[in-house]
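Researcher: We're reviewing a set of sequences before deciding which ones to prioritize for further study. For each one, I'd like a predicted 3D structure that I can look through quickly. This is 3',5'-cyclic adenosine monophosphate phosphodiesterase CpdA. If possible, include the structure in token form so it fits the rest of the review sheet.
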Amino acid sequence: MSFSFVQITDHHLCDTEALLMQGYSPAYAFRTVMRHIAEHVASHIDFLVTTGDIVDNASEISYGNASQMLQLQAASPAPGPALVTLEGLQNFPLYFLPGNHDDRNYFFRQLFAETSPMPWMNVSFQHKGIQFICLDWGPQGKAIAQPEMLAFLTRCLQIGQPAIILTHHHLVPVGSRWIDAFLPETEDNEAFWNILTAHRSQILGIFSGHAHVTYERVVNGIPVFGLRSTAPQPVMQDEPLFCLQPPHYRLVTVQDTFLTTRIFEVPL
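Model: Here's the predicted structure for 3',5'-cyclic adenosine monophosphate phosphodiesterase CpdA, in token form for your review sheet.
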């Protein structure tokens, strides 16, 4: 059993493609990343997954713009896959997670109209013997572990399958005081990691966004991966400041129960 997929994250698309975000064009950057994926890896992967913050200021208009850009066809319930077509990708499967910038009602209504809106989107899907567990830490900037989310995680892991965990919020420090203020409180963090540690032999990795930073860590024997956004990235300092760096996407390959990743940097 072998397959690959690509993670992208934190697109912060606006109401129209022409709108800028502090002089930066999220739509242009997003299209450039998707074109790079189409040209370099699409023929070798089974699907894409975005780990949230699809739009910047959530509204019917901003999600309508995102759906139009992607020529989106919601082929299955949330998280997908929905089929997208742009920049050389033709009816390509894409799974969506919501982030803290994503209004849950608009998210479902515009991207997955056949799925009833959920206050927290804790769902899972299967692919070639691997369980993908999608966890929702809520619509706030700070990650909050709802009891329902922790119970859902426990139920999924009790199945005993190899698992990959997808989440918007970052769960390990990245070294910036203002970004790491969004980490879960100690009690929530300990509850989450206690569940994972009890099942660590079956967890292949955790993939998240939110911090807009690429990193790799190992926590309690579990690989944890963050990813640079397609939107502007933060300067690693204590006070909020963004800079312009080339966006990243992450190619993930699963071979039996072994997982490897590769980062692609996309010049704008």
